[in-house]
Give the backbone structure.
Amino acid sequence: MQETFRQFRLYLIGMWRRRWIGLAASWAITIVGSIYILTLPSQYESSTRIYVDTTSLLGPLLKGIAVESDIDNQVRVMQRTLLSRPNLRQVIRATDLDLEVSTPREMEQLIQELQRRTRVNIDKAGLFLVSFTDKDPELAKNIVQTLLTIFIESNLGASRTDIQRARRFIEDQITNYEKKLRESEQRIAQFRAENVEILGSTNYGGRLLNARSELESAQIDYSDAIVIRDKLREQLERTSRTVDLATSPQVIIGNQQVPSTLGRIRTIQMDLDGLLLRYTENHPDVIVARRQLARLLREYNREKSGESDLPSGLIGMSQIPNPVYDEIQLRFLDAERLTTQTERRLKRAQADMERLKQYASIAPSLDADLSDITREYDVIKRNYSELLARRESARISQAADSETDAVQFRIIEPPEVSFVAVGPNRPLYLLALMLCVVGAGTGVSFARSQLEETFFTSEQIEKVLGIVVLGTVTQVMNAQESAQRSLRNFGFIVATASLAVFFAGLYLVLILFGSGADGTELINLSSRS
């Protein structure tokens, strides 16, 4: 610790011996730095304040009917894109700054400089602040005015352009979807026409059950009809076509001929045949006719066997058609007809059964295909309906936008030419210069003391040269030398104090009379007073 303190003390001694060199360097830097600070061109700021009103009376009235655009988001986007390169190129052309550049590199540098010196801010109340700083107040005002014009015009025309573009897009999509909708409807109609029998019913389980029941019933009826037909055929084969009949003489009473038993049998048989053609076996007339026929047949059999009251010589033998054979033959023909009908019914039931089985096997795939086509049709129709609704919303939005402005701009503070400089901050630069002067003066004194080969103590000699110092001689100054030394110290203090007073005075002037180093602000202040 003592060694460090001793070394620091030696540094201070060396710097004090070279204090005039450090002071001279400080004054030189002060003079150069002060001149630079005072000759810096003043910067003038021109600004404008705009209130963006995004509230509209039509908004709540058209909610859910017209297209609701995010006006706040559009305004925020315009805030960020206001300083885009196309807008800044337009500003450069409007303010004739393009006459000062001749190469693309210079144009790029100018655009970057404009971006750096332009500020665009917005607060929560929707108040925009656009400002620009330049050494020419007139140019700053023109640039801000141009930016204000671009900001308002771009916002006014952007929404209408977007609505028109969106409406054209919707119209094109509606045309395409109309074509797709017609094609889908035609596909569905053609598919249904080609598979109308299969797609007519989806309850193939119930239909198959009914068809199976019908098939079983037809098989039973067909089997019964065959059995009846075969039995009637056997009876018909066993029955004789004719019968021998003992005829009795005809009896004539008055002018009328009384028919014989055989004649009455034939008459009743023909009547019975006529009745069977119209009625069933259970009809009363048929039952009565059969009873009469049976009675006459019994009577005829008695006559044939000789039990009749007529003399045997009066009875003759003859062959007549067997009415039983005729009846069996009629029943056999009915059975044949019934068998044919039941056979056709059986074949039809079998065909229906096979067709339903085939339909049931391919119906799921056809249903799946129809579902795919229908699903595509539903999607197209839903999108088409939504497009129609959106077109109507776009039309209403366009009409509302043409009647009223969704965004209203109110210029609270128009851009003006500023005569009060806002920069540079010369007091701050002066403080920085003062710190640099102190550091530079100290650094120069220290560097100069380190470059000299001078020893201030005997310890330095012993340490550096490696020799033993036997003693030291102290310089004794007379009165004149002491006075000169005091005068030099006083001169250093005065020079240092003068430097401090210079800084203090210059700082006070800059604070009291503004930061205009070229005197323009002082002139403006005096002229306004």
User: Anything to note?
Assistant: DSSP finds 16 helices and nine strands in the chain. Residues 57-68, 247-258, 310-316, 516-529 have pLDDT under 50 and may be disordered.
